[in-house]
Amino acid sequence: MKEIQALFPSEDGNRESRNVLLSLITKMIEEIDSHKNPSTTSLGQLSYRTNNYYQQIVEESIAPLQGIGLDNVLQQLLRLVPGHPYQSRNYLNNALPLASIPGIIGYLLTVILNGNNIYDVAGPAGAEAEVKVVAMMSKLAGYDHKQSWGYSTWGGQGAVFSGLRLAIAKQYPRAKEDGIPGNLYCFASETAHYSLLKSVEATGIGSSRLITVKCKSDHSMDEMDLKEKMEEVIKSGGVPVYIVATAGTTDSFGVDDIKEIKRTSDEITQKYGQKPVHIHADSAMGGFYCLFNHYDFEINRLGFEENVIEELMSIRERMQHLHIADSLCFDFHKLGQTPYATSLFLVKNGQCLHLLDLKEWDTPYVGNRGYGSYHTGFTLECSRMASSIAMYAALLGFGVSGYQQLLANYVHVNLVFRKKLLDRFSNVAVTNDKNPGPVTMFRFYPNGRSEWKRELDGLAAGEQIRATNEWNRLLFERLGKHRDKVFFGDTTRQCLVNILDSPDRQPVAAIKFFSISPFTTVEVLDDIIMFLSGIVNESSMYGLRAESGRIQGDERLAATVN
Ligand SMILES: *Cc1c(COP(=O)(O)O)cnc(C)c1O
Questions:
Q1: Pairwise CA distance, residues 502 & 297, whole Å
Q2: Torsion over CA of 280, 284, 285 and 286, rounded to 10 degrees?
Q3: 123-404 adopts what CATH topology?
Q4: How far is the CA of 318 from the centre of ligand 1 (A)?
């Protein structure tokens, strides 16, 4: 048993045992550091995994009969590191954050204490950190902290799902027992995250009752279209229960006008004598920008440049209404720079959570004792990780000002990137140019000049947009091949536009520049533009060949790549 005990931190706090753990951690960090190179986006060589890579692993993997010893465990673990993405200055793919030191030490405490956040008796640290973080973020978001409540959950996805559970319970308090009626409807814009799609599937509402609302040219929800679609639903016997208003869309950073959405929704429900609809602000991506809601741009304590201030103020125009939503979310593991999964779900009126709570009878071994007063029976999870400890650490480590500096830097970097991009290429368009923020979407045109305005205005033919999409997809492939140097993101459906020759809206493909690393500053942009030029120049030559139509699909790529 002694050997087995040696696999645990000590019972009595002795130094030797502590040093075993510390030396493993030191070796781990040393090894990771040895792979770092700021001009690449991976730790060591990027490995290209073939189709049968995982199949082979399945064949080979067998749990060892005997433990292999701590040093060997570490050696095996470190074999997982090479080729892993690393959020250096050139990492521009998605909101995959570089875990900050406050986030990491918060996380470490979480796993070393290893309390269960279900209940304060089993996890008092988690309970306390959770209450602190809920209160801090409620105040920052503009909620009344005496009314609001919340908890850490499984991602922005979990928050969208929790909002929907609440939305259903508010309209149908007996749905928990009786099941849901068959005429419930949910609404979100066409660029909303697919979290709602999964949620309507999982709750049994069904994806055919998820109504997609059109977007405006700034990629925010078109309230007129929302109004029409809500009326249509009600007139045909449906009940709107849930609207997801996105505050920072995943690709374009479009921010829905929550105030206007609330006004529209209330107008319709009052007109038809229905209950108010629960509005969830899906602020998983953009929520942190509400930290500027009380920044004094006149005094400008942090000395932001004039054009950055303008952009931040335009984001604030929308973000100041965040508190109107009935629930919202902060994905700390996106712009909050903490490890996965650290997401916070907040509810404006915390009392509602009781609608979801379990009865004492149903939870015989937790809660409802004289010696514990914090039991999260209303969460979908049972055992819960105390991820709020990492959030708490990050809030303390960065402070509001620290976050403001990080977030303003993203805006600054994108502003300068857009300018440099448009200066360098005549055949490119920024397709989210009305959206300041941490991301720039752009698209190239094979015939030498930007067609974006025509496309956006619905004046392009479907075939033409599809051809441009195809050309950009070839660029994605080429960029992807070289992602170990500069890692751009891409999307085949950044938004939808009207077209000349069909009533169907057409998806637009675009490349994504997402600044998420604190090391992506304006100083590094020239190198990034140069890299992009190299890829685009090669592809332009090739684009002419593609247009000749003689070479097909993968063959076309193979002809130019390598
Ligand atoms: C990322 C994202 C989600 C999903 O969040 P996870 O933390 O990945 O579960 C939901 N909504 C939006 C707008 C997002 O950007």
A1: 46
A2: 60
A3: Aspartate Aminotransferase; domain 2 (3.40.640)
A4: 19
CB of 451 shorter than 6 A to ligand 1: no
Atom of ligand 1 nearest to the CA of 95: 1
> In the chain, pLDDT over 90 holds for what percent of residues?
89
Compute the distance from residue 343 Cα to the ligand 1 centre, in Å: 9
Q: How far apart are CA 60 and CA 58, in angstroms?
A: 6
Measured by CA distance, the residue closest to atom 3 of ligand 1 is 156
pLDDT > 50? residue 559:
no
Q: Is 44's pLDDT higher than 90? A: yes
The first and second tokens of residue 552, run together, are 């097909």
Q: Over the range 248-276, which residues count as b (16 or more CB within 10 Å of their CB) and which as e?
A: bbbbbbbbbbbbbbbebbeebbeeeebee
Q: Determine the pLDDT at residue 426.
A: 94
Res 175 pLDDT > 50: yes
pTM (predicted TM-score): 0.94
More confident residue, 360 or 397: 397
Output the CA 50–ligand 1 centroid distance in Å.
Answer: 29
Q: Which two tokens stand for residue 279?
A: 């509005």
290, 319 in Cβ contact below 8 A? yes
Region(s) of the chain under CATH 3.40.640.10: 123-404
Atom of ligand 1 nearest to the CA of 333: 7
Question: Tokens representing 193?
Answer: 């995250």
328-382 confidence digits (pLDDT tens): 999 999 999 999 999 999 999 999 999 998 877 776 666 666 777 888 889 999 9
Which tens digits make up the pLDDT trace of 68-78? 999 999 999 99
Q: Which of 514, 520, 550, 538 is nearest to 248 (CA)?
A: 514
Query: What CA–CA distance (Å, rounded) separates 79 from 68?
Result: 15
Ligand 1 center to residue 160 CA distance, Å? 9
Alpha-carbon dihedral sign for residues 484, 488, 489, 491? negative
Confirm if 461 and 501 have CB atoms less than 8 A apart.
Answer: yes
pLDDT at position 49, please? Answer: 85
